[in-house]
Give the backbone structure.
Amino acid sequence: MTAPTGPTRLLDASGGADVVGLDAHLARWGALPDVSPKVLLDAVDRSGLRGHGGAWFPVGTKWRAVAGSGRSKPVVVANGAEGEPASGKDRYLLHHSPHLVLDGAAAAARAIGTDRVIVHVTAGPVAGVHAALAERARRRVDTCSFEVVVAPDRFLSGQESAAVATVNGRNPGIPTFVGIRSVRDQGVAGRPTLVQNVETLAHAALIARYGPEWFRSVGTADSPGTALLTVTGRWEAPRIVEVPYGTTLGKALGIDAGAAAGIQAVLLGGYGGGWLPTSTALTMPFTEESARGHGSSLGAGVVVLLPTGVCPLAEAARVVRYLEGEGAGQCGPCVNGLDVLATSMEHLAYRPRSLRGGVAALPTLCGLVEGRGACHHPDGVARFVRTAVDAFGDHAALHLSRGPCQTTRPFLSVPAPAASVAR
Amino acid sequence: MSRARYKLVVDPIACDGAGVCAELLPEMITLDPWGFPIIHGDEVPDGLLELARRTTVSCPRLALTLVRLDKR
């Protein structure tokens, strides 16, 4: 039950097993230590752990805010509703090491003073979570109660207020306007609610065992620890890897100069993240600060290596149209603005001479949607478009001078619209 | 006693782009190409506070609110 010393933590207990059952879990990690809420809160604070669902919010600050809200008994929502098409790390973690996630949720519940945990996941991981909960119930591992709520399979399902709406049974998967209030004050059933990504909870489960100094022994001061990444374009199929912060992606993924030459650009963070030039993405320190410094974000750990030979503008246009369709359809600027953005990207990709105002019109349109939604969906789309315009500026100039690319095989994964699936 | 400071906040879900706010308070609110309000400036200046208050109650969807800046 020694602490892992290397850069592999969450994926350490596998020993090649597909699913780490309760026996193997306890053999590797031991039971969650029986410590006070104060000790847990201090440990999480001092660890510097941040949210791995995409928002990068300090976890200790969030736990204290919910714990101190004090009106009624809080609720923990372990959030594994991973709507991002290019991300699979949360599903993988829930399948592979469910007990690490559930331990983290139990620790969070104890820290904020509640015994109620809701596991919020899309349909895929439900059976595995139920099996893990049954194992724990048989062995009386927990003092808190767990409930499983199934999220709709949509891009926005994991958004904080959308998750609360799903649990409350009102407009499942649709964000609400929280204004100056937050689900931390009034969430599930009106109670103070901690919505925390499942990977974040798994890190917290190890911090509860081995302490903040151990957690900080890997990574950098501002990006401590490790991150699970979903990497597309490096191997035949997307793969989940655990990477220490502070390294470079080139080193972590074993990409040499030869392999880098076959990569056109890198998408970091996901479809609400941003494109970076290959050399920047592979050689910058792999930290949230560096990614933000370059106009992107590590988001929920999505890394897409876009190969040469596909039209990046056609890829971007398909993604923006998908994101437009995944909007909740509630806020005027988002409903109108994302449609115009998607149409403009389609013009640039397929009918470049129809793009009124040229490429310069795109950042202006982005400015019209940023910060104007009830949730951050339009902000993410704007970031994707702005960074695409920067990263593929030369390619856009070619489209405008010589016409669009011949159709290429689609590369980025874009699910079919829900309506056409249902038909 | 220090005076209270306020900002204007739009609930973008409730707002349906009626545009009343931009007519009543053009000093702080303009409309985007689709008719939805864009708020300019973070703090409502003292001289506009009363007009801003009247604008919030004139919104047919009550989508515009004054929010205290100095409280959370």
Summary: Chain A is about 45% helix and 10% strand. The CA atoms of residues 186 and 192 of chain A lie 5 Å apart. The interface with chain B takes residues 176-177, 179-180, 330-334, 336-337, 368, 372-374 of chain A (CB under 8 Å).
